[in-house]
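writing this on my phone so excuse typos. first protein, seq and then structure
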Amino acid sequence: MMNSQKTNIHAELSELVAPYRKQNVTPRSDENIRESVEQLLGKMTLAEKIGQMSQCADSEFAFGGEIEADPTELLVREGRVGSILGAFNSRRTFDLQKLAVEQSRLRIPLMFNADVIHGYQTIFPIPLAWACSWDLEEIKRACMIAAKEATASGITYNHAPMVDISRDARWGRVMEGAGEDPYLGALIARAQVEGFQGDTLFSEETLIACLKHFIGYGASEAGRDYNTVDMSEWTLRNVYLPPFKAGLEAGSASVMNAFNFYNGIPVAGNKFILHDLLREELGFDGMLISDYGAVDEIYIHGAARDRKDAARQSLEATMDIEMVTQLYENYLPQLIEEGKVQEAQIDAAVRRILIYKYKIGIMDDPFRYIRPEKEEEYHFHADHLQASRELARKSIVLLKNENQTLPLQTEAVIAGTQKIAVIGPFADSKDMLGTWQFSRYKEETVTLLEGLTAKGIAEDQLLYAEGSGVNDPIEGGIEQAVRAAEAADIVLLALGEHSEMSGEAASRMDISIPAVQQQLAEAVIAVGKPVVLVLTNGRPLVLDWYEQNVDAIVETWFLGSQAGHAIADVLTGDYNPTGKLTMSFPKHLGQSPIYYNRFNTGRPLTAENQDEKYISKYLDGPNDPLYPFGYGLSYTEFSYSDLQLDRQQMKSGEQITVTVTVTNTGSMAGEEIAQLYIQDLYGTTVRPVKELKGYRKVQLAPQQSIQIEFVITEQDLEYCNARLEWTAEEGEFKVYVGTHSGNTLEQTFELLK
């Protein structure tokens, strides 16, 4: 659509919306909101209350299986829905809101929900990628920009962030989360909630955040989506709970259930998980929303006699909003008549929903979020694109760089004395956004080839050959790629997964690069030129063959709208890579799930016993991943020395100061992420071999050294013991500091109690 046409459309809609907006609306006090909610509840029929607890879908995008439902307009007019999922443009949100406040009996405005996972119109790196930046402020800024763009279109309620801990790369939804570590996952969860919700939900540029999926979903067996999860409460609390707890402490207004069951009961109807743990223990009093169709799935799981019983279980578990299915509408009135549930339970749910409708201001100003003029200003704004590019650069992880293959000798290329072959299905692909995005600006995504030409490299110095599709061969493609490689001085081999190969319902049994691309790689590498593998993907891949056969590997993930510029910045050395992995890359698929914070077992593998048989190991390969958690190279080198503790014993209430010297031993300025790990050597339960407990970012000039400091408190030593108590137990501990989880210096200390 031409800019002039877009401007006209926005101007017309702005003129249409203007008379409906209120002026000088101010936030109400909590007491005033409570009083107003009680007055409104007193006017509502049972059907209207259940309507507030019901959500319908209104989108051209499919978020799950087909759901039979009445037309959206009818549901809104009759007060049978309180929120809409997937109305992605301001004209649609205006029309539906107008219908709600003019034609439904009580004129209660709608909330508009969407999955704004990593950007709305300006797309940022997928969350697994941005986690590799370890940059909380940049992640927070990305979420603030996403909220700013989404709210301009009328979106008020976000189905994000996903804060599931994930350790199995076969699971497609690893792309939505922060990886395998609870500590870093908790920090990132907090940053995302703060970014989406800002300082106040009353602002027209902040979104209701929704922590998902509570809880344990990332542990789906065999990495298969929607599959069985079976874990102890000890594991649930130590591994999967910390990011949710951090998000709740940051004030997340909403939580969404996980699809899995816990202790045999689907979470959507699990009173222990949703009521006892989430509401009572953690103190959550916000809106609890089901995932897509999850209330109905209680019955499909086989944990309810029928769908009426599924609705009862979900209400008993304090589920406030049913997403898209209609079990609440169909069965709650009958359950009340039968005395199996109480209307007071429904009142409690509606009360929570209405409180937030007042908090975001729509009860007093229903059209306040529908701002077409801001849509035009904010969507794909130059400042937002720059922020996306900056975060994308920080998200790139350099996995290998033999013989200083990178950065590229750009000056020689521009001068015409070197040529670069850019080969592969992602060499000039706009499929760089990843899944879980709904941008109208997909065709403006910057490709790798475009990013390189923007550096001033002439097209005749870039020898482009697609070579193959992502999963399908191209006739003559490999031959063309080989000719390009033969004529070049260096090859950029752009391989990976297309965007639909990761994300929800995109689990893979084989997480290697597809066979047709492997054939292309083998042919190109056989030419004998230096080869840089540039990866586009949504999960860790098995890269052992490439580690052995290419000169450099650059993990770029799905980087978003400015992907090509960010990749070119790194390849040419305009940006020295700083990213560090937040998920381990297995050496072989058979190692999955694999994670650094594992347990020793009773027969741990060591350097001394590796030739023995009766040890916890494989017959046909190592235990260790190819690239561990925290791993990532730079164009310079960093060394660690002189790890010191200011004391070897710590009593309750005291702290230990850890110092270490980090030196840039290379010839280029660079940023290092120094990582602190702690191991509890023995406890009343087994403890991980190490756990991340802190990190510091340091920028160093060539040959510069700096002493950095960490502080260890008793809280850093706490864990959930066998009695399900959070405690720090006396005993011996190890401190590790280094460049990644597998390369550290160490010291010991003792906690006395």
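second protein below, same order as before
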Amino acid sequence: MRRAGVWVCVAVAVMVGALVTVGGASAQQAWVQIEAQPSLRAAEERVRAYSDVFPDVAGFAMDTGWYAIALGPFTPAEAARQLQVLRGERMIPADSYLADTSRFRQQFWPVGAMAAPGTDIAPSALPEAIAPPVVLPDPVLPETTLPETSLPRVAEPVLPAPEPEESLQQARAGEAALTVAERQLLQTALQWQGFYSAAIDGAFGSGTRASMAAWQAAAGHEQTGVLTSRQRAELLEGYRADLAALGLEAITDTEAGIEVTMPTALVEFSRYEPPFVQYTEKAGSGVQVILISQQGDASTLAGLYDLLQTLEAIPLEGPRALSRGGFTIEATSAAGAAYAQAELRGGLIKGFVLTWTPQNAGRMPRVVEAMKTSFRGIGDRALDASLGVPSTESGAALMAGLELRRPLLARSGFYIDAAGTVVTTAEAVAGCSKITLDGGPEASVAFVDAGAGVAVLRPAQRLAPPAVAEFRSAPMRAGAEVAVAGFAYADVLQAPVMTFGTLAAAQGLNGEPDLARLALAALPGDAGGAVVDAGGAVAGMLLPRAQTDGRVLPADVSFALNGGALAALLAANGFSPAPSTGSGAMAAEDLTAHSLKMTVLVSCWE
């Protein structure tokens, strides 16, 4: 209770009629301002709520017409310590700050307090309702006690009415006295709050007037297009409070060669992981920043653009743009949002990624604009690949700390024509909102035959496959060597592999003529892959492993749709499968190279 002792003593002294001057001690007093409210009623409600937690809370009318809620008084050093501790423990708002007590006027809380810090108190300056009471002599009472209603009563303290708002003429006169820098600051504050989008030039034209009127409407003021002194203070106070809460600060990273304004109250440096500099969320803010700095060309830029979109933190929805000189990504969903940009200049790629959760949706567009307008590459260097923990584009840990987006299902497929048409298993396209080929180009379903277990995909844009399937026309004999080219490990290992085996029978277990039984230990990701003979011709398509009637087949038993049946199905649906022109067996390495070139990763996305 020592913190509030000075003011309690002042209040008590005044109420008993003593004359106390505190001006000399005020120079050593400091206050932590935790809120400001536009009306006395709202301020009283808030300060009353705070008083349940803080015994040293006080309320003051301000020269701006608002009402401040503050903790104190403290010594300056103690005030700074209290501010740090209470903000760190989230007991007070994040935008609390050391108050400028010169702006404090009449104190309205605790009830009975009468002066602002640093104000000399004299009886003549006190409101009539709380003037020192007249000391009366002790009355001589008769034996009969006076009724309670005849006892004298002390009037409740009455706060002075707030100063009246300026007239339009007075507001114009006050505005005319502003410097260019002060006018630019007002435009910046209006821009920050989303009311102004033109140049920050200090000229109050029609655009500025319209933005002022829009701000007045949003704040509940008369829409004159001219801000009064009180309104200017209110606008700037809100702007400064926002900046304090976000901690916007210019950061220069000489290792990455980047300068940018960042929300340092929300993120903190984590590590270098070339080509990235990672800033993770601070105190559960839900915000992350990644700086991008690497050497490269247009191909590197495009690879980075594709890579970023595999991150779970970057939603699939939203506009995107990629050119030879740069890219932008504006992604949003119910789970969060992100903005990314990068530019290729002089063999250097530099940019940033900002991601945030829905709780930050209101203020992040302002942070995006602050980062966009302030971002610039400095020097002629990129992040040293040996600095920190280097990553590779093929590694699943490329963006450590950010979860990579995973498809619902990933299976294999293979090209059947020069336009990039792909055949795969029907299982790979069931229930997908989006289908991609090799993690990049999107594709649509041309047709599905659920009975045969076949689906054909048409890419959204024409592709140039490195190899196209050629179908075997003659039946194979049992015991012949075969292999499956597929993404056995789905999207975990983003490269196809060959699995070798033999043809066990040219029919299914129940004599199905369109099936072939293979002695081959395939994995789920192989389904949809091409079954090739020793010459590289497609002898069938591997089907998903099925379990029926409670029976579990041996691990090396797999089934394929015969190449002839598959070719006939494709032809019946308007496609032209190419017949094999091979004339003999290939060397193992040649067979592998040929088969993997025509193999495609088919990913099904939610």
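Confidence is low (pLDDT under 50) at residues 1-27, 119-142, 144-157, 390-401. thats all i got for now
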